[in-house]
Design brief:
Layout: H1 6-15, H2 26-38, E1 42-49, E2 52-59, E3 66-72, E4 93-95, E5 98-100, H3 104-121, E6 130-135, H4 145-150, E7 159-164, E8 173-176, E9 178-187, H5 202-220, E10 232-240, E11 250-259, H6 266-283, E12 288-296, E13 300-301, H7 307-316, E14 321-323, H8 329-334, E15 339-341, E16 356-358, H9 359-377
Parallel strand pairs: 3-6, 3-7, 7-15, 8-14
Antiparallel strand pairs: 1-2, 2-6, 4-5, 5-16, 8-13, 9-11, 9-12, 10-11
Amino acid sequence: MSQMTVTEIAKKLISFDTSGPPARELPAARWIKDFLEDLGVDAELQLVEPERANVVGKIGQGRGPGLVLSGHMDVVPPGDPALWKVTTPFEPVVKEGRLYGRGACDMKGPDACILEAVKELVKEDYRRQLSVVFTAGEDTGGWYVTRVLDEGKITTLDAMYGVIPEPSMMRIIRAHKGSGSARVMIRGRAAHSSRPEKGVNAIMKAVGFLEELRELQRSLRRTRHPLLGPSTIECTIIQGGFKTNIIPDQCTLTLNARLITEHQGDETVRGWLEAIIYKMRETDDEFEAEILSISANQPLDVPEDSEIVSILRKILRTKPIGAPYFTEAVDYTRKGIPTVICGPGDIDQAHTPDEYIALEQLELGVKTLRETIKRVCL
């Protein structure tokens, strides 16, 4: 194992089918643990469910908090096999300077960069601890990074800050929006469709609610994050009615929100929706609605002057940017370990047929992580 190149490591990781749900990360996790232990790294397998596990490795343990590098092992399903033209999803190949296979970009290629950087620096004398984490469930359900943190596998005694090499073309992402969701039930009254005046059409009432939701979105545009822009909230699923000749007595709206720092939290989203419901009731005696569920994850917003941002800026000579998607960096940051995204590969390749990562991006990923480890831990 210790003689493998970063490309060979990535190919091995891709060959494990960790797609889901339901995902099965355990074989890949065992291989990573064996790889780390073969290098002499203290590594632990953390079982989180049957056939699912995290891996935590530590170098220079007890020498003071240093850096954590973290990536997920699971991948989204490959989809229609007929759409894969270069190779099959879990039989990685290199062609014309690219490594193809499910997870090549998101994020087994970046995971390989972590392992290669560790391999190259494992013999050094560490003045601060280096931790590496490989998690289950980021893309497939479970979000088991929370088990790493809640069970104290990584704390502020292990790391001052972190880097997650999700594909960013090696750009520094210090901020991304929080993700929120809600379900709202619009209630009506059933009647025969030939006598609509006898009922209350829940779908038509939902139209009014959605018009107010659009007005809310317009108002949200007035508050903008310098890297992320405004919060957004959209209806992404609508379910209503059950027979063509019955006026529908209910309609359920599923909403997705992407939140900047000023709008984070369940109660913020609840306040928006309650205000719409109140306004609708003020003008329509027949309008009835109930908020069935709300959840909201906080945004990532690591300060511009954070030490880890400064270190990466000096290495890469680029300015930080924001991202619209959600990552595990929030979980580390919430636990007191400011964590940013900076990794090889193009996010536009993630989750696509013939997913690939450029070999030069893998090399740049290793180089950047290696230099970051040196500046923080050596």
